[in-house]
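Long-time lurker, finally posting.

We've been working with AAA family ATPase (Streptomyces coffeae) and I want a structural starting point before designing mutants. I don't trust myself to interpret raw outputs, so I'm hoping someone here can both generate the structure tokens and explain anything notable. Sequence follows.
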Amino acid sequence: MPHSADLFERSGELEVLQKAMGAAREGHGGAVMIEGAPGIGKTSLLAEGKRMAGSAGLQVATARGSELESDFPFGVVRQLFEPLLAHMDPQERRRVMSGAAGQAAVVLERVVPEDSRGGDFSIPHGLYWLTADICERQPLALLIDDLHWADGDSLRFLNHLMPRLEDLGCCVVGTLRPFGLGTQPQLLDQIVTTPPSVVLAPSKLSPAAATSLITAQFAKSGCPAPRDEHFLSACCAATGGNPLLLKELAEALAAEGVAANAANIPQVYAVGPRAVARRVAVWMRRLPEDCVALTRAVAVLGEGAEVAHAAELAELPLEDALQAAKGLEQAQILFTDSSNALRTRLGFVHPLVRAVIYEGMPPADRHRAHRKAAVLLKTSTAEVETVAPHLLRTLPCGDDETVGMLWTAANSALARGSPGTAATCLRRCLAEPPPPRTRLDLLSALGNAMRHVDTAGAVPYLEEALALAGPSRRRVEIALALGNALLLLQRAGEALAVWRRALADTAPDDTELRNQLHACILSIPLYEPGRQDMREDILSQVSELRSAVPHPGPGGRSLDCVIAGHDAIIGDPRAVLRARSALRDAPAAQQPNGQISVSFGWLALISADRDEVMGSLDAAVEQAHREGSLNGLTGALTYRSLAWLCRGNLEEATADALTAMRAVETSSVRLRRLVLGPVHAEALLERGALDEAGKALEWTGVPDPAPITGLMYYVLHSRARLLRMRGRTAEALDAALAAGRSFSAAGGQNPAIVPWQSEAAVCLHLLGRDQEARALATAELRSARYWSAPRALGRALRVAGALAEGEADLPLLREAVDRLRKSPARLEYAKALADYGAAVRRHGKRREARDALSDALDIAEARKAAPLVRQILDELHLAGIRPHRHAVTGLQSLTPGEQRVHELAVQGKTNREIAQHLFVTTKTVEVHLSSIYRKLGVAGRHELAEKSARTFSTPAPG
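Top reply, 14 upvotes:
Generated this for you. Predicted structure of AAA family ATPase:
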């Protein structure tokens, strides 16, 4: 195994590692990230962490990232889990790979089935459950060296695992270099900064520790111990106190017989920064030529190379290669791993040593060696993913076999849920180049793979594919993909042109494809409301297509969702029936254009306060988890978060928003941010977290002042609320009016989507401009009555009532309470009760005020709506009223999350089955069940069925 330098001055770091291992043993997982320059001691600390994990009784799994293998899909994951699974008996292996964990099988199987549906989310989810199942048997330590060179797929798994670690008996320890080095710096940043991750940054050694290390190394080499202070100071300065460089410098100086005195200080500075390279060069000059050839072969093959493969690449007999490996191990250049009796493997003692050897090879020799390595690995029936990294490092030469192998590797990567690796392989195919007859298929495959990882990067390939494709259905399908990519990049004009040309090319009798194209074209004004040059013509098409209800087929249902979106924006109640029909007949996963269209159906039902939208959203979230669609997951979670917000379920809204935001962070699509950021901000504003709400709006990337084009009205409306709550009323009014201009540019008139008029009215009232305020409030009330959904109408009535003169306030506020009483919008109901209670108090009706304010307080406190709670308490205090509190118990006291857990528990599902069904952790289920038992007054599961005879038909008052 690799040599570990002495751990000088690392007691603090060792204590953190020790605590992390102990916590994992007790079931409280965590992560320790050791960040620092090469040679600072990261690997030595990791080795000590491995020893600690074993002593604490943890299972240990190790891996090392490699620049060569950074394109190997789930390479680090496989290093970690394959040995763990290999040491299990068949029964135990079946146990840990059951249920949701089975989704990870596609990563760990040697050959991927052709019908595999691995996706960019389902596999990390399956790997999480595999980790959880392994930890159930025995706590686990995952130790990863050189995390910055890990493949992107493994990093995505770790990114998924981090926020769920605390519920597992699992400790993750990784080493990485700073300054954004590596394959996926953004993912690395998320992994390092996500709680419960702790970052250790080992510092350079002090002069005293450096002196001790140098002295020990000279003594180990049989040389007199250095005593010259100037010489020792020079050693410390030349290496910057880096432990590895100090050790290598001392070894190189001792090996060359350099006396440790002041006269040789210039040589110290000459060797210091190149200590590793100098030491390796010295040893390589002394070693036989066989050793040189073997080190170069291992450098090309990568970490853990089989000695038989290295011998063949080095053109050495196996016996000679084994003998050379012993010499290189003595020289501390290679280490030998013989844990597998059938396959001895070789690796470098430190990545810096491998870099010195590899970079010392002439580029042409490297390319030839990689091509030869690919051939011998293919001949030895290695997995195609093992062959591909070598082909990626060869020079293009028009070789059809190379194209074939890389294309096969790309298909395998897609099946394993690794579109990034697939795109890398397909790009290299394109450079080879491929035979002309296959170029169209290759461009199309590459463009679609790139859409998963880099939407902007996909466009050129899809454009070229579109140009190559002759008039055909295939050409239209490419146009649909290209237009979607352009729209997500906010290049709506180009998307529209592509789709219109495709529509002109589509056969008149191909109703399905024409409906898909119409759905795409009609969505343009909803995404780019400020583009009047596109808007009028498209809206005339909406009117023409609105007549047929419903449109047939999946494409027709997509079209109906988009038309429903147009109707919802203008406040036409016909939107609700159309959206209900489209979503009932076609779940989100069956929509041909994905959530580009279905999201408008959700928007219509959410703004109408329809209960059935929650079932559609839940199904879409579940489908996205199962199919592994990261884009689908972010869309479904964004709109489910909006639905929770409209219902006043702030905890659920925040949880979904945070999950979606984390997923969006790994994509290049900005369009999602324009809806998701404001939804998260609104939930935070309701809880009084103003600073966090401000950060959520900054996350959207929208400047201030914001442009009117695009989906800016959500951001502007939320910005107005934030400014008002911060006391910046004049600025808040400007933002609210800007939101109105942006919404009106989209034809927006529905206050259930953007209630900008009531927001502006509140601002005007605070500025003393009551006449203008009442005019805006009256206008919103008129639109809300036409749409007639309880939440929007109740809000409009409440604001109009609060601004009314004299006794005109009570009828409006009383109607607001009545309209909202049976609606799912519980927080809006609480606000109406609060304003009504304040009004009747001012009119001298003290008992009625107490009842209304007390009911409002129950709801607001249950939802942790801090600003509303303070408002109600202030009103009660002013009136000298003691609130009449209701003890909310029984099934009606359960939160939506608790209700779902309760329903599944009553069905007899285990905690693990519930967690997998709801895509949460087992710990979260346990917490929900504890709360359910307390609220229902039961001792455990066996009493739940008796307490569940009642239904949830009556909305919960709290």
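Before you design anything, note these points.
The first strand starts at residue 30 and ends at 35.
Strands lie at 30-35, 59-64, 140-145, 170-176, 197-200, 305-306, 334-337, 345-348.
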